[in-house]
Write a structure and sequence with these properties.
CATH class of the domain at 33-112: Mainly Alpha
Radius of gyration: 21 Å
Distance between the termini: 50 Å
Mean pLDDT: 82
Number of helices: 6
Oligomer: single chain
CATH architecture of the domain at 33-112: Orthogonal Bundle
Shape: extended
Strand content: under 5%
Helix content: 55-70%
Largest sheet: none
CATH topology of the domain at 33-112: Cytochrome Bc1 Complex, Chain D, domain 2
Structural class: mainly alpha
Length: 122
């Protein structure tokens, strides 16, 4: 089936419009595009370093690595500690005092840090 030139152009424009709308919608709603400020997060991380280390790699095996984690994961974890749906008495106490912006800033800071982790080479 052969399409006329104007019909092909209309179909291509429609497809491009649909794809651009989809991409813009994802970008606008994506928590990974954190509105946090990593520099502010660094300042706010002073309390975190006692357990998670200045490098975000943890000071002992029982403290999770924060460096290089997805910002959206870190935000969600802190929100869950704050609202009690994720259980840890120590983290719940720290998260209770964090504002939404504090959480975004801390997530931006730790997600931007290098983790040193990678996939082993065969």
């Amino acid at each position: 089936m052969k399409l006329s030139k104007s019909l092909r152009r209309l179909l291509l424009q429609s497809a491009a419009f649909a794809v651009s709308g989809f991409v813009l919608n994802i970008s606008a709603s994506s928590p990974a595009l954190a509105s946090g400020d990593a520099a502010a997060g660094k300042t706010k991380s002073a309390t975190c370093t006692a357990c998670h280390g200045q490098d975000g790699l943890g000071t002992a095996s029982e403290f999770p690595i924060l460096a290089g984690q997805y910002a959206s994961y870190l935000e969600q974890a802190l929100i869950q500690y704050k609202n009690g749906s994720r259980k840890n008495a120590i983290m719940a106490g720290f998260a209770a005092g964090l504002s939404e912006q504090d959480i975004k800033d801390l997530a931006a800071f730790y997600s931007a840090m290098p983790s040193g982790l990678g996939t082993p080479k065969p």
